[in-house]
Amino acid sequence: MEAEKSNGCPLHGGGAAAQGLVGRLLVEVVGSRHVYGSEAPAGPLDVWLVDDRGATVHVTTGSDGCLIVEESEPHTGYDMGGSGRVTVGAIGDETPFADHLGESILAVREEHEPNTGRVALEITFPGGRVRCESWAEDLRLTLM
Question: What pTM was computed for the model?
């Protein structure tokens, strides 16, 4: 994927051009989740889309409300002491991407805001669409 030149986030830059996702076959989704005590995990905070060639695209939100799309490998989980911990692992069956594992990405559509940059990304598969968006600085994934 090439760096996006226009509509970039002033704080985080343009990241990867989402058009580079077109044609990739989605084989796995890895995510990070916040776990606090005995509560159910919250999130995902991040997702990494893994294609059939082993390339990994990270989708997350920035502190300024932008939607970050970049090529990077999943990080490891970490402990935040009294604030819980962040776990990282396969979560494909727990996201709207579950119905699209094994499908190729046919198209992508981005939404931008002037002061923030990219705020949403819709990914089209043969069986439907998944919308990734920054919502109140949280990552929201929706089956369309």
Answer: 0.90
How far is Cα 71 from Cα 56, in angstroms, rounded to an integer? Answer: 6
Kindly report the three-state secondary structure assignment for every residue of the chain. Answer: CCECCCCCECCCECCECHHHHCCCEEEEEEEEEEECCCCCCEEEEEEEEEECCCCEEEEEECCCCCEEEEECCCCCCEECHHHCEEEEEECHHHCHHHHHCCCECCEEEEEEECCCEEEEEEEEECCEEEEEEEECCEEEEEEC
Bond into 44 cis (ω within 30): yes
> What are 5-17's pLDDT values in tens digits?
446 777 777 778 8
Question: What order do you get walking across the sheet with 42-51 strand by strand?
Answer: 67-71, 56-61, 42-51, 26-35, 85-90, 78-79
Pairing of strands 117-125, 128-135: antiparallel
